[in-house]
Amino acid sequence: MKTLIKVNNLKKSFFTQAGELRVLKGIDLSVQSGEMIAIVGASGVGKSTFLHILGTLDRPTEGNVLLDDIDLFSLPERELSKVRNRHIGFVFQFHYLLPEFTALENILMPVIIYRNQGSEIETLYNRAISLMKELDIYERKDHRPGELSGGEQQRVAVARALILEPKIVLADEPTGNLDTVTGEELFKLLVNINRNKGTTFVIVTHNISLAQRCTRILRMIDGRLFEERS
To answer: What's the whole-model pTM score?
Structure first.
């Protein structure tokens, strides 16, 4: 398999009046294209911080992240934003849908941000419809987030993350705000997308039973990552 992401000696500190708080303490990681990786660990050990840096939503104190051999944090901010929008999908515990827009419009939001034009817009519109059917939310396409259940809202968020066919999807507790049955259904969808489309996922989760269905489990302990299972 091809190495999609390479993380080298990643460190992150926050500086407060009390002094330096070292959250990430030197992480090395290779993510292969098509993998589905789960990151587990206790609250407060740095899982979300690591995911945010991996997705370029935050910058490391030291170290670098390479996506297809491109050193992301060496890019100018405008170029980095383009790479983030085009090649990295995000699914969070809270869906962050825009309440004034319909489900379909929310899914198409990255398309608007990326400023796709002409025939590509039609292609992406058709892809949005196809994703909604695949995720069983097509009948809700004209509904606004407040009219959707929690599970439906999160499926819209998943479709939004996939609309531009990113190289990798980062998910931070994607089932954490859902009941057990709905969370299980959503995770099944993510597994099917990984297996059928080869989409690469890195998922932070507290749910060990769900994590065990991923291709690899990494455990974060005190700001460092350890391989738990191949």
So the answer is: 0.88
